[in-house]
Design a protein that fits this description.
mainly alpha, 2 domains, 4 helices, elongated
Length: about 130
């Protein structure tokens, strides 16, 4: 395979490029398969037809915002609305709004939100597209 940053051939088991020091798979300038320069933003290498390896695209959702929402408004499911988990969000919202009928509803929603809060902090919850939070 080739370094995606500088196009130098690198060993398959190499973790970083010995030429430029960039981590394997990082960079978008060169094809990892044939080492040819890629057109900016190309999804496919025009030289060999291989899909330019998907980069670990970051979510446009902010981790800190999600964590704060979970902490302060988590019982209302606001952080899940933010991350795009509509079903989960509505479930938490309903638990808080009408859960008081069974008394422990808001408590359950609160604990649930607290778990989400911790999961967000340790990067266990991506956004609803599966992209890691930025
Ligand atoms: Zn390199
Ligand atoms: Zn190629």
């Amino acid at each position: 395979m080739y370094c995606k940053n500088c196009g130098t051939q690198m060993a398959d088991e190499a973790v970083v490029c010995v030429n430029c020091g960039v981590a394997k798979g990082a960079g978008v300038a060169y094809c990892h398969n044939c080492g040819k320069e890629l057109a900016p933003g190309a999804a496919v290498c025009l030289a060999c037809g291989v899909a330019a390896a998907p980069q670990a695209r970051k979510s446009d959702k902010n981790k800190l915002v999600a964590a704060l929402l979970a902490f302060f408004l988590g019982g209302l499911g606001i952080h899940n609305f933010y991350l795009g988990y509509k079903g989960k969000a509505i479930a938490q919202l309903l638990l808080s709004l009408i859960g008081w009928i069974i008394v422990i509803g808001p408590l359950v929603a609160g604990i649930w939100a607290l778990i989400d809060f911790v999961m967000i902090l340790v990067d266990k919850i991506p956004d609803s597209d599966g992209k890691p939070l930025s």
